[in-house]
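Hi F.,

I've been meaning to write this up properly since the lab meeting, where we talked about keeping a consistent format for the predictions we share between groups. The idea is simple: the sequence comes first, exactly as it goes in, then the structure tokens exactly as they come out, then a line or two of notes. No screenshots and no reformatting. I'm using this chain as the first example so we have something concrete to point to.
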Amino acid sequence: MKGIRIDEDGDVMVRPCKDLDKKVAKGLIVGNVDMDIAERIIRAWQGEFKEAPLLGGNIDKFRNGIYDPFFQGHVHEQLISEGLSVSRVEVTEKGVAVELE
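Output, unedited:
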């Protein structure tokens, strides 16, 4: 899926470029946003997206030591419901690994 890219801090990614008058202007970076969407869904709390109140992985619960055994399947279903082609969601020691097709 193509869209405006967002960085790790949630800010819009901008690339400096020159306009027709050879002055430095800024331009939005457009590209594949599938992983951006997956990250936002995993990080979101349920209820954070008002148009889809059940959408959200609640990943911050893991910081408090609460493990949800259904997390992987739950997030997998949510990513598919948002139009992403997901082949695998796995919780690892380093975080959550998402593999898109």
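Notes:
The helical segments are 34-43, 71-81.
The chain has two domains: 1-32, 33-101.

If this format works for you, I'll send the rest the same way.

G.
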